[in-house]
Amino acid sequence: MFDSTKVFLFLTAAVLLAIAPGPGMLYVLARSLAGGKREGVLSAFGTFLGGMVHVIAAALGISIVLAKSALAFAAVKYLGAAYLCFLGIRMIVDARKEQGGVESHGEPDLSTVRPARNPLWQGIATEVLNPKTALFFLSFIPQFVNRESGHVFLQFVLLGTLSVFLNTSADLIVIVLAGPLGNLIRSSAVFRRRQRTVTGAIMIGLGTYLASSESK
After folding, report:
1. What pLDDT is recorded for position 160?
2. Can you tell me the mean pLDDT for 130-159?
3. Can you give the chain as a three-state secondary structure string?
4. Cα–Cα distance between 159 and 181 in angstroms, integer?
5. Residue 101 predicted with pLDDT over 70
6. Shortest CA distance to 29 belongs to which of 47, 14, 12, 17?
7. Distance set, CA 10 to CA 13, 38, 93, 166 (Å)
8. Phi/psi class of residue 103: alpha, beta or left (left: φ > 0; alpha: ψ in -120 to 50)?
9. How far apart are CA 155 and CA 31, in angstroms?
10. Residue with the larger pLDDT of the pair 152 and 74
11. 175-210 burial, b if ≥16 CB within 10 A, otherwise e?
12. Rounded mean pLDDT, 53-59
């Protein structure tokens, strides 16, 4: 069902994206620092469920369109590859703009977050209401779906679930190491810049490779 080369690329990209500090990871970290590990775990589980909502929704829409039209399938893949390159460039630009201290990219301020009354539902809502998550799945997952093998919906759900699982696994590790990781992410501008730059370069490389491979 899956091409082995693309599976390897998918796992590599998914793992690197999962461990890169982003808004989701910082949100879970903030919940852990504010309310303890239990609240952090509930928040991480909530973001997992919210992510799965996006996966299922995207799979339903994509599978219906792509299963019927090879042209639509190719268009989605090319647009998705271009979007991955755009994300990579933006990450690198943001990393270079950062001047140390607290970032202002919409990420939570870890020092001011208060304990949530229901961290599970808040985690679900935070992820479900994030349009960037939906856009990411719509651009990232179709790159690795093999239309010729059929079962487009199943392929999408399997890859999406694996991606969300890796993200949640990284969040759980952050929860366990909340203290030292929190201090590192909050205080080290160099660490954040390097993470964004490396992840951005990988995104650009991945998008370029996928776009060129589809044209052969």
Report:
1. 93
2. 81
3. CCCHHHHHHHHHHHHHHHHCCCHHHHHHHHHHHHHCHHHHHHHHHHHHHHHHHHHHHHHHHHHHHHCCCHHHHHHHHHHHHHHHHHHHHHHHHHHHHCCCCCCCCCCCCCCCCCCCCCHHHHHHHHHHCCHHHHHHHHHHHHHHCCHHHCCHHHHHHHHHHHHHHHHHHHHHHHHHCHHHHHHHHHHCHHHHHHHHHHHHHHHHHHHHHHHHHHCC
4. 28
5. no
6. 47
7. 5, 31, 24, 12
8. beta
9. 33
10. 152
11. beebeebbeebbeeeeebbebbbebbebbbebbebb
12. 88
- How many residues are listed for the chain in this entry? 216
Q: For residues 100 and 106, what is the distance between their CA atoms, to the nearest angstrom?
A: 16
Condensed to tens digits (0 to 9), the pLDDT of residues 104-127 reads: 444 444 444 444 468 888 888 878
Contact 66, 151 (CB under 8 A): no
Q: How far is CA 112 from CA 16, 31, 34, 115, 200, in A?
A: 28, 10, 8, 10, 29
Residue that the structure tokens 């990219």 belong to: 105
Whole-number Å distance between alpha carbons of 55 and 202? 22
Identify the sign of the CA torsion 85, 159, 51, 57.
positive
pLDDT at 11 over 80: yes
Q: How far apart are CA 203 and CA 27, in angstroms?
A: 22
74 contacts 214 by C-beta, under 8 angstroms = yes
Residue type, 60: L
